[in-house]
Automatic annotation (TrEMBL):
Name of the protein this chain belongs to: DUF6534 domain-containing protein
Transmembrane helix keyword on record: yes
Domain DUF6534: 165-251
TM stretches of this protein: 12-34, 41-61, 81-104, 116-141, 161-180, 200-220, 226-245
InterPro entries found in the cross-reference section: DUF6534 (IPR045339)
Origin species: Lentinula guzmanii
Keywords, comma-separated and alphabetical: Membrane, Transmembrane, Transmembrane helix
PANTHER family (UniProt xref): CHROMOSOME 1, WHOLE GENOME SHOTGUN SEQUENCE, DUF6534 DOMAIN-CONTAINING PROTEIN
Signal peptide: none
């Protein structure tokens, strides 16, 4: 191997350490998920699967680092050979990505209203990437014995895997963002929650895409080093962490979505003031000429209830002025019970009261 140990196994070692740290975060998120959520068995099974794949992947890359840095430390001739665990880890990394992307594909299918053509495009990206990973693993086990052979035989396929991963992740993130953006209703509560979901969608595709781009650039710019391998080691962890972050965030979003906020307020409507400021009022009350009295007040209780679940928003308004059809009769009844300040306790309303909406 022409490159130094720093650029090869040193870079791979950094990737192993970073992957181990991300695995720890995944385990913590997984523990939180299973202790705070009661989902269907298929979703819980998905979480178990990706965590197991990540654990097996970490064991494989740790074994790889141990063999090259410890077992082969006194046998420099063997440092140029490719051991089985370095090849097998590719498969489990691909399985993790495949599981998470299938979950995101299902989410797109639901949000799009079961649009087959859109879901088909997403599935084509997911299956293409997974097919490239399977092909890489099979060819590597059958043909590759040294790192020179790995570079000669599989460089093109490695570039393809990373390129398809970038395209697929960006496409999925973009579609999720577009669908969520179109789901906005104009209500502050629901729009705030949708914005949070958009943030998670962008993070899901953004982090994995950045990692795949870094791996792609590294393999093209420095193919004789293992810098691209260090990025690839962490890619599966980013998928898992993104999935668990999305699932765990639902508790916060659901509380805001299912919470009902009730606002009750009192409004005092003055006939005198509305007559003076009729041009700027939303309701104009015209009273009889016999009303020389002071203000007549009407108590208005307004109740608004908002309940959002990303698909429906119900706004309920109850008030004594909400029914304009019977507004005139209600105002007359109110006026008949008012004691006027001029001492006329039994004044009759001859001209009636009108209520118009401006």
């Amino acid at each position: 191997m022409s490159s130094s140990l720093d650029e090869t196994f040193g870079a791979a070692y950094i990737g192993i350490v970073v992957a181990a740290m991300l695995l720890g975060i995944s385990v913590i998120q997984g523990f939180y998920y299973f202790t705070h959520h009661e989902d269907r068995w298929i979703l819980r099974g998905l979480v178990v699967a990706v965590l197991i794949f990540d654990l097996i992947h970490q064991i494989l890359i740790t074994h790889t680092g141990w063999v090259y840095l410890v077992s082969f430390s006194q046998q420099p001739a063997k440092l140029g050979t490719v051991i089985w665990s370095l090849l097998a880890e590719v498969l489990f990394n691909g399985l993790t990505a495949f599981c998470v992307q299938c979950f995101l594909t299902y989410r797109i299918w639901k949000l799009s209203g079961a649009k087959v053509w859109l879901t088909t495009i997403v599935i084509s990206f997911v299956l293409s990437e997974f097919a490239c990973v399977i092909a890489f693993a099979i060819i590597a086990f059958l043909r590759v014995k040294t790192f020179e052979q790995l570079s000669a035989e599989l460089k093109g396929l490695s570039v393809t895997v990373n390129a398809v991963a970038v395209a697929g992740d960006l496409f999925i993130a973009g579609i999720l963002t577009l669908l969520l953006q179109r789901s906005k209703t104009g209500f502050r509560k629901s729009d705030t929650m949708i914005n949070k979901l958009i943030m998670f969608a962008v993070n899901t595709g953004g982090l994995t895409s950045i990692c795949a781009v870094a791996s792609l650039i590294s393999i093209l710019a420095a193919p004789a080093t293992f810098i691209y391998i260090s990025f690839f080691f962490s890619m599966g962890r980013l998928y898992t962490n993104s999935l668990l972050a999305n699932l765990n965030a639902r508790s916060m979003i659901r509380k805001a979505a299912e919470g009902i906020n009730t606002i009750t307020g009192d409004a005092s409507i003055s006939f005198k003031d509305y007559a003076r400021h009729a041009s700027s009022s939303k309701l104009v009350f015209q009273h009889a000429r016999n009303l020389n009295a002071t203000n007549i007040s009407i108590q208005v209780d307004t109740t608004r209830e908002f309940m959002s679940d990303l698909e429906r928003n119900v706004v309920s308004r109850d008030g004594c002025l909400s029914d304009f059809k019977h507004g005139e009769a209600e105002i007359e009844e109110e006026l008949s019970e008012v004691n006027l300040s001029n001492g006329d306790t039994e004044s009759n309303i001859s001209n009636g009261v009108g209520c118009t909406a401006v």
